[in-house]
Design brief:
Helices cover 73% and strands 0% of the residues. It has helices spanning 16-44, 50-58, 66-76, 82-94, 108-143, 148-162, 165-179, 200-229, 232-239, 244-269, 271-281, 287-296, 300-328, 330-333. One of its GO terms (cellular component) is plasma membrane.
Length: 336
């Protein structure tokens, strides 16, 4: 039975693609460890803490006595040195325990889990639509560079990219909700139900995310495609009489998508920050509300869990993009 050329390259020698996967995985683990430390230290440096917020809210004098503050900090474990708290937090992460909210006392898993599903639906829908739109229009525009269709696509992409997400969301609400009355202006999801049960509430938030992400992504794919189209190996392929369709799919698309995927990964990771703004504008019940409230109340375990989850998602997206680039480009895949 023939051996898979992507996994082996002869007896006693590993294939470069397999070794690259191992190196990328190890690098991702190292980056995750570094991110965990940065997240913990960053949240620990926030001015004030949960004890200050709790006493300020509960005491009519506006803060309580120093003795009360010290006692509450000891009760919440905030008086423990940060290296010890960091090791305890890492140990909990490895066991799947994110800790408890300092404000409500609820499990952080429960606090986040009640909203995380809604955010994943919104982010997943936007990503599923972004990739074919950005890749399709970027390739189409890059292959037809200089033609009227290319100018229209490029102009619309630049205009969309220039709009901040909250401005795009406001314009969409004004046009489709207030003027046309076609879609709801707010995206409320009844507790215990999925946003997919009312898909109309996802249309405007998804369009708001796409309006900003797609513009930048289309331009990046288009720029790379236009470079590949002018490359010498594409000209040689055409001079040898290879059909244009085969030239595009065999030579242009793989070489254009390789580097473009890494740039596209940056646009997808932008969802981590952009979705917070969109959820606030549309009153969408995602994790942004919990994150904002946790920062205000200095609920450090919730902030740490959400920040760490966002960072890990970003690292995973870039790692996957790197591996896809190598898989698409034969020269990189074979170590040439």
């Amino acid at each position: 039975m023939p051996r898979d050329p992507l996994l082996t390259a002869g007896p006693g020698r590993h294939h470069p693609f397999l070794m690259l996967c191992i190196r990328r995985s190890l690098a991702g683990i190292a980056a995750t460890c570094a991110v965990s430390l940065l997240v913990f230290v960053g949240t620990d440096l926030l001015p004030g803490d949960a004890a200050d917020v709790i006493l300020t809210r509960s005491a009519s004098s506006g803060g309580g006595t120093p003795e009360q503050l010290a006692a509450l900090r000891a009760e919440l474990g905030l008086d423990v040195p940060w290296p010890q708290r960091y090791l305890g937090w890492i140990g909990g992460l490895l066991q799947g325990d994110l800790g408890s909210s300092l404000v409500s006392g609820r499990s952080v898993t429960d606090v986040i889990g009640s909203r995380l599903g809604n955010t994943l639906v919104l982010a997943g829908t936007a990503t599923v639509l972004l990739v074919p739109v950005a890749v399709g229009l970027g390739l189409w525009s890059g292959i037809r560079q200089g033609r009227p269709g290319d100018r229209v696509v490029s102009g619309v992409a630049v205009a969309a990219q220039a709009l901040p997400e909250f401005v795009a969301a406001t314009l969409l609400i004004a046009v489709f909700a207030l003027i046309a009355g076609l879609l709801p202006a707010v995206s409320l999801v009844p507790p215990g139900t999925s946003p997919l049960a009312r898909p109309e509430i996802l249309v405007l938030p998804v369009l708001s995310l796409l309006s900003v992400m797609a513009g930048q992504s289309i331009r990046m794919v288009r720029a790379r495609t236009s470079e590949v189209v002018r490359a010498d190996f594409v000209r040689v392929a055409r001079l040898h009489g290879i059909p244009e369709r085969r030239v595009v799919w065999r030579y242009v698309v793989p070489n254009a998508l390789g580097p473009a995927l890494q740039l596209l990964a940056g646009s997808i990771s932008w969802l981590v920050g952009g979705i917070v703004v969109v959820e606030q504008v549309f009153a969408y019940p995602g994790i942004s509300h919990e994150l904002v409230q946790a920062i205000i109340s200095r609920d450090v375990p919730v902030v740490q869990a959400l920040a760490f989850a966002m960072a890990v998602c970003t690292l995973a997206i870039y790692t996957l993009a790197d591996l896809l680039v190598v898989a698409l480009v034969p020269k990189l895949r074979t170590g040439g």
